[in-house]
């Protein structure tokens, strides 16, 4: 709690509920912090901004949790230097995927016990494995060069478990292993469809598998929930992948809400000039993804010309509902594509 200014500390008074203040062209970077349960005890009915930035100052917040405070407002005196918040969870603030801000409007349990002052993460906390590793790694390397990797959290636990850092001051750590062991988790990509397969060892009190997807290997979104069917089971899940590169992982939860994550599977499209047709086979529509505009010429299996379709750069949806069932070929930019009409 204090003011940050290049002219020295404490030249301005904190007021009402302000936790952090910047003044006179100063900046404050907050990485992997937790700001929780702050309120104005002197004037309970008056709540100023949580963070105040005056005179071209700004705050930069990453990998952090702002929760349970009487105010969540960040005040910037001038819009030419707005504050920047990313990879964070702020109570009352809706999700912002462009800045990797999680949905703070839900009632999901975030901390173990805020009443007792325990701000460690619960097993089902949305703040687990959703941060930006580089943000803390670079700060640690700059200011604590003797520390390894992402350093330690507030409890002295090593940071960045399971490949992706958690939000807030604590890294989640389960006291006991999850009662399932994956024998294998892998993926393959064919005709724009990703197929994920895995095999379980012993499944004891396992509640679910959650299949997740990411465009960058850092921020993951839910695809589907798969119920376990017993020890030694084989599972598979298929999903369209129009993107050139995608990342997948499993989150496994047991009946006591302990959570563990699998290794990350990366799937890359091997298509010339970004050219891709999916799904295949198809019934009513096919999608053509191409990096350049052009024309698609469609022929049937005997080589008879059927129709021409103009393509724009990007994804093109093409109606094939009027075609008879069978094999067809498409030609564009000197490349041949084959698809089956069901």
Describe the structure.
The protein folds into three domains: 2-143, no CATH class; 182-268, Sandwich (Immunoglobulin-like), CATH 2.60.40; 272-341, Immunoglobulin-like. It is 3% helix and 41% strand. The protein contains one helix and 27 strands. It has one helix spanning 133-143, and strands at 2-4, 20-22, 27-31, 34-36, 51-53, 58-62, 65-67, 74-76, 84-86, 89-90, 111-113, 118-121, 182-190, 193-200, 206-214, 220-226, 234-240, 245-254, 259-261, 265-268, 276-278, 285-290, 294-300, 305-311, 314-319, 326-332, 335-341. The strands form eight sheets. Strands 15, 16, 18, 19 and 20 form a five-stranded antiparallel β-sheet that branches. A four-stranded parallel β-sheet has the order 1-2-5-8, with no helix packed on it. A four-stranded antiparallel β-sheet has the order 24-23-26-27, with no helix packed on it. The protein is globular. The model is unreliable at 1-17 (pLDDT under 50).
Report the sheet-strand fraction.
35-45%
Total domain count = 3
The total beta strand count reads 27
Order of helices and strands: EEEEEEEEEEEEHEEEEEEEEEEEEEEE
Secondary structural class: mainly beta
Q: Give me the Rg, rounded.
A: 26 Å
Query: Which outline best applies?
Result: globular
Distance between the termini: 65 Å
Q: Residue ranges: pLDDT <50 for 5 or more in a row? A: 1-17
Largest sheet: 5 strands, antiparallel
With helices defined by DSSP (H or I, 4 residues minimum), what is the helix count?
Answer: 1
Overall pLDDT metric? 80
Relative helix content: under 10%
């Amino acid at each position: 709690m204090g003011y940050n200014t290049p002219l020295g500390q404490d030249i301005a008074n904190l007021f009402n509920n302000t936790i952090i203040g910047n003044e006179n062209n100063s900046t404050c970077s907050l990485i992997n912090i937790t700001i929780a349960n702050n309120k104005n005890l002197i004037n309970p009915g008056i709540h100023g901004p949580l963070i105040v930035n005056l005179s071209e100052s700004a705050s930069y917040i990453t990998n952090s949790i702002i929760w349970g405070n009487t105010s969540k407002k960040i005040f910037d005196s001038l819009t030419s230097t707005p504050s920047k918040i990313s990879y964070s969870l702020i109570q009352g603030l809706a999700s912002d995927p462009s800045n990797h801000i999680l949905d703070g409007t839900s009632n999901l349990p975030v901390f173990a016990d805020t009443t007792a002052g325990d701000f460690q993460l619960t097993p089902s906390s949305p703040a687990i494995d959703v941060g930006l590793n580089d943000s803390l790694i670079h700060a640690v390397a700059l200011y604590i060069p003797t520390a390894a990797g992402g350093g330690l959290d507030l409890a002295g636990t090593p940071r960045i478990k399971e490949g992706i850092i958690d939000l807030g001051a604590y890294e989640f750590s389960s006291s006991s292993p999850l009662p399932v062991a994956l024998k294998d988790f892998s993926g393959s990509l064919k005709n724009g469809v990703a197929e994920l397969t895995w095999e379980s060892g012993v499944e004891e009190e396992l509640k679910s598998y959650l299949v997740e997807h990411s465009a960058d290997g850092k921020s993951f979104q839910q695809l589907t929930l798969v119920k376990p069917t017993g020890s030694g089971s084989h599972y598979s899940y298929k999903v369209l992948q129009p993107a050139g590169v995608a990342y997948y992982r499993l989150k496994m939860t047991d009946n006591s809400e302990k959570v563990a994550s699998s290794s990350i599977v990366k799937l890359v499209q091997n298509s010339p000039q970004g050219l891709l047709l999916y799904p295949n086979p198809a019934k009513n529509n096919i999608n053509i993804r191409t990096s350049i505009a052009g024309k698609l010429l469609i022929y049937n299996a005997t080589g008879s010309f059927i129709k021409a379709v103009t393509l724009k750069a990007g994804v093109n949806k093409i109606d094939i509902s009027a075609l008879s069932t069978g094999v067809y070929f498409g030609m564009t930019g000197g490349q041949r594509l084959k698809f089956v009409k069901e």
